[in-house]
Amino acid sequence: MKLRLPGRRDRSEATRAADADLTAQLVKAGGKGRPTPKRSEAQGRRPGPPPPPPTTRKEAYRRMREQQATTRSSRAGAAAGDDSYLPARDRGPVRKLVRDVVDARRNAGSFFLVVAALVLVGYFIPSPAVQSYTVFLWFLFFLVIIADSVFLGRRIKRTVLERFPNQDHRMRGLVWYGISRSTMVRRWRFPKPEVALGAKV
């Protein structure tokens, strides 16, 4: 027979109550902030099971053609400038305006590959005079690109503020977007240019 000291039960009950209160506080502090959904609700939100693998070569070929057609249509829509197919960095009327400003002018950056090829050829010619001219040409071309990028950035800012004066624009991002596009060859740009050279934007 165990002897209980007076007040022993009171202290244990108080300890259990304090532990329960602390546990409730920890659960409340680290909880999800929302009730756990029922199993039927959770299963209802899950996507359906994946389609079964094709059983015949004809069905596999049909699925492959459907997937290729979807990819081609998405690629064509993005190349045409359709916002629903474009990535996030190219969406919106402001970005389209920046692309039009870049595509409507001749940019020094679009000749980068041509000049780089000439410089590469010049490095392989065993002549100190040719190599010195090559270094000078490379340095001069970079100065031209910097100056042209400054003029392009100013034009982008002015055009965007004229067309969309009441919107909050991140001009640095828009200018860099236009300059990076101007360094690509015109036929390789994506989305494809929608304005002709010299067009008024």
TrEMBL record:
Question: InterPro entries from the xrefs?
Answer: DUF3043
Composition bias of kind Low complexity appears in 69-83
Q: Does the keyword Membrane apply?
A: yes
Keyword set for this entry? Answer: Membrane, Transmembrane, Transmembrane helix
**Composition bias, Basic and acidic residues:** 7-19, 56-66
Cited Pfam families? DUF3043 (PF11241)
Is Transmembrane one of the keywords UniProt gives this record? yes
- Sequence intervals crossing the membrane: 108-126, 132-153
Disordered as annotated region, ranges: 1-87
- In Swiss-Prot or TrEMBL terms, this protein is called DUF3043 domain-containing protein
